[in-house]
């Protein structure tokens, strides 16, 4: 695929190719990227923006792509610190079994997790770059009906965990 511009040969097999990625504005300063003379950064998610604009985000402690919300740098050290903070601050007993649904911005998985006021961790990729969703992901109609008929009815009083929706 011809993109109409050149990336470093170092990036040849190390980036997510997005057609016409440079024929757009920088999502931070809105300057048209194809005509710019400023240094451009290619994020792992495939979005481009000025390197100086990314540095401004980092100075404001923002580490997610402003277009798709995926983390644009290694956050593992930060996530370990968040793990420590959460471990040192357990939820009150009445909230310990509360479950909520989240969407992970990094791996795009929807999961049910234990509620915590500090942060919500993705069980798949271990990221805290998540957002709370309203409910479980929608299932295809046929499988949802068969799952309902196969599962025993459960009353709210006998449920061992609470749901926040």
UniProtKB/TrEMBL annotation:
Annotated GO biological process: protein ubiquitination; ubiquitin-dependent protein catabolic process
Keywords: Metal-binding, Zinc, Zinc-finger
Entry-linked SMART domains: RING (SM00184)
Gene Ontology molecular function terms on file: ubiquitin protein ligase activity; zinc ion binding
Pfam families cross-referenced by the UniProt entry: zf-RING_2, zinc_ribbon_6
Organism field: Glycine soja
Record SUPFAM superfamilies: RING/U-box
GO CC annotation, single: nucleus
Name the UniProt record assigns to this protein: E3 ubiquitin-protein ligase RZFP34
Region entry Disordered, spans: 136-165
Domain CTCHY-type, residue spans: 1-25
Domain RING-type, first and last residues per copy: 26-69
Matches recorded under InterPro entries: RCHY1_zinc-ribbon, Znf_CTCHY, Znf_RING, Znf_RING/FYVE/PHD
């Amino acid at each position: 695929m011809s993109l109409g511009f050149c990336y470093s040969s170092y990036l040849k097999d190390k980036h997510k190719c997005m057609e016409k990625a440079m024929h757009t504005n920088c999502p931070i300063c809105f300057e048209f990227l194809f005509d710019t003379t400023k240094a451009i950064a290619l994020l792992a998610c495939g979005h481009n923006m000025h390197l100086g604009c990314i540095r401004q985000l980092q100075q404001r402690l923002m580490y997610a792509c402003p277009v798709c919300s995926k983390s644009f740098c290694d956050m593992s050290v930060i996530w370990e610190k968040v793990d420590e903070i959460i471990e040192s601050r357990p939820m009150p007993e009445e909230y310990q079994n509360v479950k909520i649904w989240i969407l992970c911005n990094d791996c795009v998985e929807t999961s049910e997790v234990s509620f915590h006021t500090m942060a919500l961790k993705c069980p798949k990729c271990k990221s805290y770059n998540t957002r709370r969703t309203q409910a479980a992901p929608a299932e295809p109609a046929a499988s949802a009906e068969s799952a309902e008929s196969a599962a025993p009815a459960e009353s709210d009083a006998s449920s061992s965990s609470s749901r926040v929706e």
